[in-house]
Amino acid sequence: MPSISLSLVLLLPPAIWIAYSWFCLLRNYQIARKIGVPLVVIPISHENPLRMVVDKAFVVPLFERIPFGTGSFTRYNWRGWEFADKSKSHAELGDVFVVVTPGRNWLYLCNAEALLDVFQRRMGFPRPFLTDGLQWQRHRKITATCFNEQNNEIVWSESSRQAEGMARYWSARDSTNSIADDTRTLSLHVLSSAGFGRSYPFRGHLEALPESVSTSYKDSLHSILDNCILLMILGQRFIAKPWLPVTLRKLHEATITFKKYMTNVYEDEKKSIAEGKPGAGNLMTSLVRASVENVSAGTMGELQGGSTESEIYGNVFVFNFAGHDTTAHTLAFAIVLLAAHPSVQDWVAEELRSVLSDQKPEAAEY
Length: 366
Description:
single chain, mainly alpha, three-stranded mixed sheet, 3 strands, 64% helix, globular
């Protein structure tokens, strides 16, 4: 009897979870059928936090090795499947189809006119997980002022300096087998300068010096951006547990270092505003100033109110998260494509010579 009771205790929670998942899947399937578009049904939601940790690393490769593992389960049931699938599903199923999961129904749309209509009807199609409505307008009003000519000039000069360092590093080597790590470094350094006013000399990935993540702001930001999905899934409190692997403990140290640095910048800028000093012009200081000015300028009847300290941190993180990998990958692909198409490379070089004339790139002004 004790062994039976123990088995029931162990098996009952998973059984309840499976039953509930199938109930939710059936409910969502019935809802999706009413839309009248092609359906793809998968038994586990690809936004399930536990699933996100193990999907591509363990589950999908395992199912791909068994005879029945090549269907929609492995095709659609992992985070980021859209990038691998590209337009194949739309070519097979049409401009619109729905992926049915226990968590929710996902409608995929591939029609320019319909997409334009969706984006124009903000109230009819609220953005999931994002600030919307009046809150969105407030955030947009504050953040829009930060992207100005002063910040563009910082991006220009830092990009030129980093590109020169990267070219010098590559020229000093006999061959370069991969450029992805170096374009990520370039992207990170430009973001550090434009976002926080911190400038670093370019250092190639093969000559990078080991540095303690707890003492380096740059490496802290790098660590957070590289592990942001894991950080969002597990949460900062969980990764602080002392019994976790060293990798997660270092990630926790990185979050502490980065938060401490942002707090210092925030307090310094508030002090500068109170003393009437000019701002540094980077995104972080511009956000603080724009938020304070928005509170000061607000009148009754207007959209007013500045960002809280946590909202400023959140916006800064979104800027970095959205700009890091996208910029790095774009640069990496552009460089490879230029190397593969000498005629285009010659055309770009001709344009640069025409613009820069005899002056060196670092001497050119924005």
